[in-house]
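Students often ask why inverse folding is considered easier than folding. One informal answer: many sequences map to the same fold, so there is more than one right answer. In these notes we will look at a single instance of the problem. The structure comes first.
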């Protein structure tokens, strides 16, 4: 498949990557030797995690890695990037949307092998414009592992909202998230070791550490910081920022930015939410027999009603909310998440010419 406007079909039916040439036990030993601190989701195999962590971006400079803390807008941002590259390639938004599950067109690095994908060779639509990869690695860890050939989009979200969203997301997925069984309320979750340590999901730190690392990398030319709240506030403007970062601003005019924003609004994504619920990934795991000790991943609602902002503050007790905000400030070194968001807006104005907030 090519990215030319004359060939716009999405190459979704591809042979799965071959089974690992090493044993699962060998891969597990290798993973533990390289990353002894890591606790990864029990629905993944060690082989898949190891392959994702050792992914090497192409020399083209067109690889974009969206590395976010969980429940911070990962799916939304990868979908926006996919739509941008489609328009930049001369495709229509209808052609861009011709997939069953977004994982077919945006590769989740540490899950790819379990789904039959080889990140290096899986053909992505419009990949001459950009190949897009999803990850939950922390910023410093992602850039250290994958190097400076790739571009990185780090998405930030109010930690109170991240906390609330993560708790609500994993509650129905008890078999894949056994740690949540004994947590009755979001306040309980905020006090748990899981929230405060968060070695799970490949992060060598919690959301506070993720934000600190992203903030420290803000001046790198191949790094872009995006705030979930700014996506909510002015999506066409953020689409334009992403297009500029991808190097295709000359192909994405204001009208295209608004059309992309319409297609990727929460209302629009809710109307086709089966495209974002990970069902294909789960089916692939079952079909290929590649899953961890807790079985294949469970499908789950990924697109909330309206991408709420401020829900965390309303759901948490005042004392717990204050403790979370204090922990964030002590780790990041800024007075509040709102201060960081404001400074990111200033950075966007100085470096990109976009006035955020």
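Output (designed amino acids):
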């Amino acid at each position: 498949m090519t990215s030319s406007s004359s060939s716009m079909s999405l190459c979704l039916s591809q042979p799965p990557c071959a089974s690992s040439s090493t044993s699962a036990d060998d891969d597990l030993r290798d993973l533990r030797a390289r990353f002894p601190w890591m606790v990864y989701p029990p629905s993944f195999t060690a082989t898949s995690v190891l392959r994702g962590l050792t992914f090497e971006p192409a020399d083209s400079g067109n690889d974009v890695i969206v590395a976010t803390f969980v429940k911070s807008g990962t799916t939304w941002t990868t979908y926006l990037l996919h739509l941008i590259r489609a328009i930049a390639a001369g495709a229509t938004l209808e052609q861009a949307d011709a997939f069953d599950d977004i994982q077919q067109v945006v590769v989740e690095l540490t899950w790819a092998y379990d789904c039959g994908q080889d990140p290096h060779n899986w053909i992505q639509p419009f990949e001459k414009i950009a190949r897009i990869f999803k990850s939950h690695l922390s910023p410093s860890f992602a850039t250290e592992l994958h190097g400076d050939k790739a571009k990185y989009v780090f998405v930030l979200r109010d930690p109170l909202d991240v906390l609330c969203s993560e708790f609500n997301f994993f509650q129905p997925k008890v078999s894949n998230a056994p740690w949540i069984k004994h947590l009755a309320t979001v306040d309980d979750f905020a006090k748990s070791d899981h929230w405060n340590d968060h070695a799970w999901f490949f992060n060598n730190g919690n959301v506070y550490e993720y934000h600190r690392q992203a903030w420290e990398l803000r001046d790198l030319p191949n790094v872009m910081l995006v705030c979930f709240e700014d996506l909510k506030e002015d999506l066409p403007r953020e689409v334009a920022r992403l297009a500029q970062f991808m190097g295709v601003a000359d192909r994405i005019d204001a009208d295209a930015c608004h059309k992309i924003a319409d297609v990727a609004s929460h209302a629009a994504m809710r109307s086709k939410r089966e495209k974002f619920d990970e069902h294909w990934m789960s089916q692939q795991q079952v079909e290929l027999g590649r899953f961890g000790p807790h079985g294949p991943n469970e499908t789950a609602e990924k697109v909330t009603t309206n991408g709420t902002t401020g829900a965390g503050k309303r759901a948490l007790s005042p004392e717990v909310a204050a403790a979370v905000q204090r922990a964030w400030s002590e780790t990041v070194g800024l007075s509040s998440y709102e201060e960081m968001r404001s400074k990111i807006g200033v950075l966007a104005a100085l470096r990109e010419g976009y006035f955020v907030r």
